[in-house]
Design a protein that fits this description.
This protein is mainly α. The chain has a domain at about 5-80. It has five helices and no strands. The longest helix is centred in the middle third of the chain and has 17 residues, at about 55-70. The chain is elongated and about 55 Å long.
Length: about 110
């Protein structure tokens, strides 16, 4: 995929029910065609459900996703897509260890 967003890394089961409840859109439906970044896919699903889609609504939906992720962070990352985040965490942990002489910060 040429473009991606952080929401592409999340397991949609974390936020799907809440988006359906708040906005009346089933984000578990699959779209035909090429793979697109998260906001493009969600926007297309809103339109298929006859719902408006604009920047303001996109921000509301992203907030809904962020709240769902914050409520269940241990389940938020999609297992098949977690590698970039886990690599970043490992790299940061390594750098922080170097900054503190190999010891955890206090």
């Amino acid at each position: 995929m040429a473009e991606a967003e952080v929401e592409d890394l999340y397991d949609e089961s974390i936020y799907a029910d809440e988006i359906n409840r708040r906005f009346g859109v089933d984000v578990t439906l699959r779209l035909k065609g090429k793979r697109r970044k998260w906001s493009d896919r969600i926007g297309e699903l809103f339109k298929k459900h006859g719902k408006p889609w604009n920047t303001g609504i996109e921000m509301q939906v992203k907030r809904c996703v962020a709240e769902a992720v914050a409520a269940s962070p241990q389940r938020a990352l999609h297992a098949a897509r977690a590698d970039p985040i886990l690599a970043l965490v490992g790299a940061l942990a390594g750098k922080l260890g170097l900054l503190h002489g190999g010891r955890p910060s206090q």
